[in-house]
Amino acid sequence: MTESSRRSSRSExxxxxxxxxxxxxxxxxxxxxxxxxxxPGLRREEVAxxxxxxxxxxxxLEQGRDIQVSExxxxxxxxxxxLNPAERAHLFELAQGRPPPRLAITPASVSxxxxxxxxxxxxxxxxxxxxxxVVAWNPPAVILYGDYxxxxxxxxxxxxxxxxxxxxxxxxxxxxxxxxxxxxxxxxDAGRAADRTEFDALVAELSEVSPEFRRFWSEHDVLETAxxxxxxxxxxxxxxxxxxxxxxxxxxxxxxxRITLYGPRPGVSTTRARKLFGAVTR
Length: 282
Known about the structure:
The protein is 48% helix and 14% strand. It has 13 helices and 6 strands. It has a 6-stranded antiparallel β-sheet. A hairpin with a 5-residue loop joins strand 5 and strand 6 (256-264). The mean pLDDT is 89.
């Protein structure tokens, strides 16, 4: 980033903070509004107190001075100013020149619109959280992986299934290389999380029940890929090669989710997939 760009970002950040501060009513954050306030919103010292930072430091930031700020401070500031997910991301972009850490929020469901889009996809589709918890699926996914609704919520997880489900292991070829790739991608996602607590808990549980996971995890490999090819063996039709892509989706409430869509490769895989999923697709 050039010096001119940095100055522009600092100026924009200063104006953004002032506008967000003016928008928050004292009553919204547990403070007394009083009758002697000459301007709307919070005072600088109130924002500083809520964000647990010195008044001078916050004032410099709001004045557009060239100071370095940490991720924990920006997270506290976002909460103090009651920023929505888009505003939080904008704050990080202006202050640090990069997106904020990804939040690992596990939703109970997805929006009706997303579920409808998923349901009309003729082949398997899954919606997962950044921690790979499965929160939505379509009928073809049930045929391929089983009904996630019948599993305990804590076990509706891609990584957990890969290492603890005999059905998943039997149907995935070659299982070991696929499992190694999953572990490497999961490690990368864990490193990006704003809070690793849920990720580390899953790692600890899998390390207890799966020696293979424990061994793969200790290798510290990382991998990033949003698409690939996966071979699944189904007892009714045989091997189907699926191409898959993963798309990032923000729900209306700001939760970050991933949509993974599968499509059979042309030829015999397409023929077998149409036979397998024909009864549940429209």
